[in-house]
Design a protein that fits this description.
Radius of gyration: 21 Å
Bound molecules: S-adenosylmethionine
Helix content: 25-40%
Number of helices: 16
Shape: globular
Distance between the termini: 45 Å
Strand order of the largest sheet: 3-2-1-4-5-7-6
Number of strands: 7
Order of helices and strands: HEHEHHHHHHHHEHEHHHEHEHE
Structural class: alpha/beta
Length: about 375
Amino acid sequence: MVGVPADGVDEPASLTMRYIGNKTKLLPFLTRVITRLGIQPGVAHDAFAGTAAVGRALKATGWRVHSSDLMTYSYVMQRAYVVASTVDQFDALAAAVPSLGASFAGDDSAVRQNRLAAVSRYLTTGVAPLDGFFAQNFSAAGGRMYFTDDNARRIDAARTTLHEWRERALLSDDAFYILLAAVIEGADRIANTAGVYAAFIKSWQSNALRPFTVVAEPPIDSRPDCVAHQADAELVAQAVGPIDLLYIDPPYNTRQYAGYYHVPELIARGWFSGEVSLRGKTGLIADDDLRSAWCSRRDAPNALRRLLDVTGARHVLVSYNSEGVIADADLRAALRDAAVDGKVRRFTKRYKRYRADSDREGRQYKSDEVRELLYYARLR
Ligand SMILES: C[S@@+](CC[C@H](N)C(=O)[O-])C[C@H]1O[C@@H](n2cnc3c(N)ncnc32)[C@H](O)[C@@H]1O
């Protein structure tokens, strides 16, 4: 499988989407720092949730999590990995889809856990491939080599089936989002890209030739009171009020996520409620409302100050990268001004840059080592 871009972790975790800035591999570092600072589990806001990896890990360690992001696919993952708490028994679905129901027959309570896996298998191979809107636009036949024709039709079929099941009220909300997250991640594993969707590759990568699979993950049942938000971090911080921990992991550079992940965004939104217009060689969707101030050298420092102003958090942790658009001095100054004691601490983790992406982008870097930085301030 091809690697993730330079400013993310160096290689994809098994099922998780390849995502710039995905913190899956840095979770041990983050949790060590939280422990070292003596911060006890309470209410946290994972303000730039992306794949929801951080909110999910916080939930698993006893935190009540609010998470937020601008993107729809992130909202889907927040719902699947942070909000969802129960495994659906799929009784209504089994009654409506007899061939699926038959595969549940005679199961006892232990095997009932496997119903999620059976439904995932059904979405992988039980539904007939569909030559619908997605397949016609994001396949080799459609002129955009993001997926092989067969895989594009299978993704189309799985997403369309989920839409129909939801319309017919055959799935709980939790089940819908868990399965939709699995479709997005299954598509990502076989996408013919270098890790982001800004371009497809003009010859088939080995991962793209593998068959599409849906592998749904059972939810964490520890905290049934977590909340997902699809909204700007600042607005959500204001709305959630007093909390224990704000975790800030914003975009680091000028690349807008909306343009880099339009394919997962389209799968998350679906294409069933009116015409979707696609632009250009890569099939971009309208994204004017998704442009982030955090990707702008001019606006990001003020966005940080505004977020620190409105949050009701007692502690703040900021993940940042040594090559980010906010200079170290500006970041420290903003945190210092917001801190109750005027102090800022910084923890560092070094990791290797993934070479292929930096070469593809034709950018110049001083070294192959990037430092992931974690800043801490006590706010009240
Ligand atoms: C570095 S990534 C976060 C990665 C995440 N921690 C993970 O492990 O997957 C930054 C995220 O910020 C989101 N974002 C950008 N501007 C935002 C804003 N104003 N409010 C909320 N989220 C925003 C992007 O969509 C992207 O998912």
